Amino acid sequence: MTETEIIEKIRAKGFKITPQRRAIINALVTADKPPVAKDVHREVRNKYPSVSLDTVYRNLNLLAEIGCLVKYNLKNSEKSRFEILKHHHHYHHHLICLGCGEAVCLEKCLLDMHTDVLKNKGYKIVGHAFEIYGYCPSCCNAVENKDGKK
Amino acid sequence: MTETEIIEKIRAKGFKITPQRRAIINALVTADKPPVAKDVHREVRNKYPSVSLDTVYRNLNLLAEIGCLVKYNLKNSEKSRFEILKHHHHYHHHLICLGCGEAVCLEKCLLDMHTDVLKNKGYKIVGHAFEIYGYCPSCCNAVENKDGKK
DNA sequence: CCTCCAAATAGGAACGTTCTTATTTACTAC
DNA sequence: GTAGTAAATAAGAACGTTCCTATTTGGAGG
To answer: What Å value separates CA A128 and C1' C29?
Structure first.
């Protein structure tokens, strides 16, 4: 997803385009790897020194809610990372070592993983979590426009 | 898993049995639903009023590391819940509403979900995360005893 | 161009969780 | 039993993230 597409989507949902918001989006699309909030904050401060960390978080979460990026925690309660959605690849699978915390990102999708990938990584699997995000029936009606927000 | 089995496992891994630890385990196995850390803390303080929250967290994380319970966050960065492993059901699947935050625990396993469950819940799915926990090849060697710890 | 209002912001407080440090305690071997 | 040692503890500081409040600002409509 390009910077322009993201800005268009924000506008379409009825949110405003602020200089801080632009700078945050720019930091995200130009990052080499999914940054943590502080990376984005540091980057944005180069241009706007008074931007608050809260503003960064608010915008990262907004972008996640409208489906422009995915937010994920590699290990339980480590810092969150924020990755702009390229193509339409909503899946995000990780193979995480409980010993050292190292995470391997898996490019393949769910079902393939079970058959191929897991066998070949040499990991000893002790558990997994699979969570699905969406809108429940009663929220679905209110979701089309900005009402999807909390 | 019973209280006795858990204590045996702790001993087998070379960790010590303290009164606080016993009380924490007891609070976990007698809870009706997976508690958050504060629930456990409140419960344990009835017996040992000076137990610190840190001690509760340290023990909950230890129990997760040795595979006696699962720790999970329903929505991104909500509080963690801690569930004693009954049977050998390592799977933990949730259907989470991005609108209201309500979570439905799914009893069925991964593959079934795709075919049956998702269709019938009336949720509009916008994404999911699937994370696998285990030990990487280089950690596997050091895992048999307490070296599996950080 | 002005006005107006919802949305966005900065700053700091609050929350959940982990870390640090100094002290105490459970187990082991004598 | 006693001594020695690694592990566990309490207390509070620190960290990542969210919330609260008062102020400012983007953009729609006159």
So the answer is: 42
Query: For residue B88, how many other CB atoms are within 10 A of its CB?
Result: 8
pLDDT band at B69 (very low <50, low <70, confident <90, very high): confident
Question: Which residue did the predictor score with more confidence, B85 or B107?
Answer: B85
Give the mean pLDDT of B118-142.
51
The domain that contains B89 carries what CATH number? 1.10.10.10
Q: Which residues pair with A131 in a beta bridge?
A: B94, B129
- Res. A110: pLDDT tops 50: no
Overall pTM > 0.85: no
Note down the domain range covering A76.
Answer: 3-148
Of B14 and A79, the one with more pLDDT: B14
Q: Which of residues 81-110 of A touch B (CB under 8 A)?
A: 90-100, 102, 104, 110
Residues 15-74 of A with CB under 7 A from strand D: 16-19, 36-38, 53-54, 57, 61
What dihedral angle (degrees, nearest 10) is formed by the CA atoms of A133, A139, A141, A145?
A: -70
User: Which residues in chain B are contacts of A131 at CB distance < 8 A?
Assistant: 74, 93-94, 96, 128-130
DSSP string, A62-96: HHHHTTSEEEEESSTTS-EEEEE--TT----EEEE
- How many pairs of residues across A and B have Cβ atoms under 8 Å apart? 188
In chain B, how many domains are there? Answer: 1
Could you tell me the CA-to-CA distances from A54 to A50, A51, A61, B101 in Å, in that order?
11, 8, 11, 21
pLDDT over 70 at B120, yes or no: no
Question: Distance from residue A139 (CA) to nucleotide D12 (C1'), in Å?
Answer: 43
Cβ contact, residue pair B139, A80, below 8 Å = no
What pLDDT does A86 receive? 64
B92, B124, B136 member nearest A123 (Cβ): B136
- The winner for highest mean pLDDT among A42-46, A104-108, A139-143, B142-146 is A42-46
